[in-house]
Amino acid sequence: MDTHTTSAKVLLNHATTLNLHTGNLVNRSRLKKKCPSSPSEEIQDCVRATLSEWFATIPPPTSPTDLPDTIDCSIPQATEAITPEEREELKVSVKLFICEADLSSIKDAVDKACQALAVSQLDSVIIAPPALPEEVSQTLDNLQPAWSELEGLVQSHKIATIGTSDLDKELLEQLYNWAQVKPSSNQVNLASCCVMPPDLTAFAKEFDIQLLTHNDPKELITAASFQEAVQESTQDLKVADWRLEWVLRYSIIVKSRGIIKAKGYLVHAKRRSL
Question: Would you tell me the crossing angle of helices 169-178 and 198-206 to the nearest 10 degrees?
Answer without folding.
Answer: 20
